[in-house]
Amino acid sequence: MQNYTKYKPGYYPVGPEYTDWVMKDHIEKAPTWCSVDLRDGNQALIVPMSLEQKLTFFQFLCQIGFKEIEIGFPAASDTEYEFTRALIDQNLIPEDVTIQVLTQAREHIIKKTFDALKGARRAVVHLYNSTSFAQRQQVFRKSREEIIGIARTGAVMLKELAKEYEDQGTDFIFEYSPESFTGTEMDFARDICNEVIDIWEPTPDHKCIINLPATVEMSLPHVFANQIRYMDKNLHRRDSVIISLHPHNDRGTGVADAELGILAGGERIEGTLFGNGERTGNVDIVTLAMNMFTHGVDPQLDFSDMPKVREVYETCTNMSVEPRHPYSGDLVFAAFSGSHQDAIAKGMKFREETDPSRWTCPYLALDPHDVGREYDGDVIRINSQSGKGGVSYIIERDHGFNIPKAMRPELGLMMTNISDHNHKELNSDEVFARFSEEYVNDFSPIDITEAKFDYFTDTKTEDKENVGVDIRVVIGGNEIYNLTAKGNGRLDAVANALNKSPYTFSYKFVTYSEHAISPDSNSKAAAYVCIENQTGKRFWGVGTHDDIILASVNALVSALNRMNAHDHFID
User: At how many degrees (to 10) do helices 78-89 and 107-116 cross?
Assistant: First the structure.
């Protein structure tokens, strides 16, 4: 790109004396949250929310724990005004929730804003005017003093109107934003905010809010945090002022701005669910809150039913949450990579065996259950990039088969080849269907339909043959043989019996294992047999049956039939 030279930093950094916050390594408590979904988020929608949608969204924001909600710009449109009145007149505002409204520093707008708030129990009146060098130079063409005059006039009007409305019983809280703070010289931002503070005369018992917005995100996050620290150290009546942050996301680092800004002195965050807002959006409160949650800090917001949060958001805004959105997207818990799946499967098992109260699972910052998601279909997903661990984990988790470690590479390769060939993800049912079709109870062309075992002790030989078997075997669907033999174990006896048929079964046992498919007393059993032909190629078979002994016979038969498909010793 050739035009990069026309871009120069438009922000104003501060000195090293304002970097002391960098030694903090985590956020210790949640800030005060203020949702601006219904104002900042709403004005960014192609089709703004209807009155009904806004009411639904407001009530849901209250349910998940927001105590401060910016409901709109009452003087901007009839819908905004009517929404404010509906909340007040219908008594829809919980006692512990404070509504917030926005107003420019203009007399008729401020008066209509106060009129819209008649009867409210408690309300934040949010006053703003733009302060950046670019806005002063290009838009307003006013000097610093003239811009301060706008803020001063608005601040005086808020204070005077609040006194007029005192008999209405409303507790008014004042908020001021030097809009485009990030493009404002820091000494000017300090001066204009202090001018407003001095007019309002807040007290520790009745504070005002100074909101410092990254109206346009311009700098690296640590530069923004240093600016916040500068304001933190230079505002008048600091014990009577709440520093609020309102980061946007133009550089894609709105969350980082907010987190570092909190470390540097920010006490309050204005943002939206999933970062909805103008241009690239506001800071995402869901991500911010869940980041705190995964550090062991109570975020004071309830996102334990994340699918419901998404549903309400998407229904009311007609926006969508993209699949990789942190904590909430469809794929945020999905692992397709084989090495990731193996680590997750082992991590889950380790947690169950050691300390289920702690979450330390590799590759998963969050237990999906904590946000209303399930492991089934969310965590380990099978495609052409998956490996042996993931496939085996899904078959065990959903169907109870504990695949032997030595069998897993072959099974994993088979599934990834299927996914690659079909260019699709395989769901749990598809994985199990292909596993069953390939390995489980394969009775063609060899089928042992009956097997009766007799156990005895042979005292004549040192190598005791202590198992006898009578089998009925059907080969090719029409050849039936009743065979008897002995062996030093069940499967050895069955093998010796099969070799009395007209066919030669040349193989050796490699390994055998078995288990109940579920803990129930009436559970089916699963058995796994691996055999090796004369060239050293190995074949796995899996058998199931109500009787563990017959399950092992079925596993051997399945392995033999898979070997026959390769060696063709039976046509």
Answer: 30
